[in-house]
Specification:
about 500 residues; nine-stranded antiparallel beta sheet; eight-stranded antiparallel barrel
Length: about 500
């Protein structure tokens, strides 16, 4: 299931936008939805899940399923706290909208005018990057570029943003979509520069407290066993929390169904809730307008998606003649979705403590409830896809084994490989010898990214990092003209973390 889990993170930014067309459904049976989700949770063996819906200003559905911790058996409820991962981005964009309303900056301001230390690899992009460019994924960086800088590392947000300058831009500025977490971290730094408050303080003061989101936090650093927490799970087993403070503005918010529905209601009311204006209606339309287009498919059939793209913290698309505003989030052990259908005056949230196709299936099912007469069994379709994907992943693993060249030996004795290596963007890695076995340790994330190595073939060594989320990897050493290790690269297949872009060069001699 490891490759499948990683596959779902990529799907969060692209799946679920093309549907068939029929007339809208008028009568809605929420008991039927509850039964459907209960059955689907059992089918997917989902540890825990919460689903909430607001329609016409009223909470019409707010249900929890399963367990927040399969080891203790504690049940999930609507007050249970989940990590919402990239659904955090809409909050960060809203913070920027508040600053625009306050006249402290404008969407078209140059980033360096407020944040002089901001720097990308391309001087032109550094100079021309506008505030809104940070939030709509058109920086010229590739999807997920630089995510290894924050995932499990001891780098601060400031250091993460400083180090991204060493990653070359994959595309021309504003030429295409590249989903970017590091640019959202930079946006958080900009908020601090302009407001004089940390992103966390600004978020709490301007959004959480006014909305009464009292259980919502920007960090899991203060979590303890007495709290009503959904523990992250992998393959049905609880795992340790990973601290995401250093990617806060991109993915660190933790909240409950009860709290997150207040956030949904704020957007359905275009920035106002309970008589308080958090941001203006003008900013609501700015946040939810399409700035970076994406390919929706042919778009030549009634009911299909004709337009699809990214606004500021939200994906936006048309579906069955309605505007849909939505965003997904995924991190190891957590999966979330927030969606709005303004014409139907409906918004909903999905929280889960395991990455699963069930989240996207639930999203599609609920959208269909408000736009169609016919109901497709999305859960069954996604379940079948999971099974097929698992088979494909096993086949890939078998092909890797077949391609292995047996009977080879390393070019050097194993002690010749030890030493300190460095990738200019990521930082240092150490190859050491312990009990006559090579070990690899990527120092910025030495809790997750450490492993014993075993010879695979030639100068390639296989390893399995401590991180239960990642599949096995392969380190290949390249020798210099003197026959000594010059550098090593990592082959660790996944779409979320670009190990293949790292080049660890030797920086000392044995």
């Amino acid at each position: 299931m490891k490759y499948l889990r990683l596959h779902f993170l990529l799907l969060l930014i692209s799946a679920g936008f093309i549907f068939s067309s029929v007339n809208a459904q008028n009568d809605r049976d929420y008991n039927e939805l509850k039964e459907y989700l209960q059955k689907a949770n059992e089918q997917f063996e989902m540890p825990g899940m919460a689903v909430g819906i607001i329609k016409d200003g009223q909470v019409v559905f707010n249900e929890a399923f399963g367990k927040r911790n399969t080891k203790t058996g504690e049940k999930t409820n609507t007050e249970t706290i989940f990590g919402i991962a990239s659904c955090t981005k809409a909050f960060t964009a809203a913070c920027m909208a508040i600053l625009v309303d306050e006249g402290k900056l404008d969407w078209t301001d140059k980033v360096i005018d407020h944040y002089p230390d901001f720097k990308l690899h391309d001087p032109y992009i550094t100079r021309e990057m506008e505030v809104q460019d940070l939030l709509c994924h058109r920086s010229g960086l590739q999807t997920f570029d630089g995510d290894l800088l924050w995932y499990g590392t001891d780098y601060t947000r400031k250091e993460v943003v400083e180090r991204i300058q060493f990653r070359e831009n994959a595309y021309s500025f504003r030429s295409r979509f590249g989903y970017q977490n590091v640019m959202y971290i930079a946006a958080g730094q900009l908020i601090e520069k302009v407001s004089g408050k940390s992103w966390d303080e600004f978020m709490k003061e301007k959004i959480f407290i006014p909305l009464g989101m009292n259980a919502t936090t920007t960090s899991n650093g203060g979590f303890n066993e007495s709290m009503n927490l959904a523990y992250p799970h992998i393959d049905g087993e609880p795992m340790e929390f990973i601290n995401y403070d250093n990617c806060g503005p991109a993915a660190s918010i933790n909240t409950s169904s009860d709290d997150l529905l207040k956030w949904v209601e704020l957007f359905l009311n275009k920035g106002t809730l309970n008589g308080q204006t958090i941001f203006s209606e003008k900013q609501y339309y700015k946040l939810t307008s399409l700035l970076t287009p994406l390919n929706p498919g042919p778009g030549e059939t009634i009911g299909e998606t004709h337009f699809f793209g990214y606004g500021l913290g939200w994906f936006v698309l048309d579906y069955e003649g309605r505007k849909v505003i939505q965003h997904g989030g995924g991190l190891p052990g957590f999966h979330s979705k927030v969606a709005l259908i303004p014409e139907e005056k409906v918004g909903f949230i999905i929280l889960a403590n395991q990455l699963s196709g069930l989240v996207e299936a639930t999203y599609k099912r609920i959208i269909d409830i408000y736009t169609k007469n016919e109901q497709k069994d999305w859960a069954q379709l996604y379940y079948e896809n999971e099974q097929n994907q698992e088979s494909r992943n096993l086949k890939k693993k078998e092909e890797k084994e077949i391609a292995r060249v047996k009977g080879t030996t390393p070019s050097l004795s194993i002690e010749k490989y030890i030493g300190m290596y460095e990738d200019k963007m990521y930082g240092k890695a150490e190859i050491s010898l312990k009990e006559n076995r090579l070990h690899i340790e990527l120092l910025p994330s030495n809790t997750l990214f450490t492993a014993e190595m075993e010879h695979w073939h030639y100068d390639t060594f296989k390893f399995q990092f401590n991180d239960p989320f990642l599949p096995e990897g392969y380190a290949t050493f390249v020798l210099n003209g003197q026959g000594n290790p010059d550098y090593f690269t990592i082959d660790l297949e996944n779409p979320d973390f670009h190990f293949f872009k790292l080049k660890f060069e030797k920086i000392n001699e044995n």
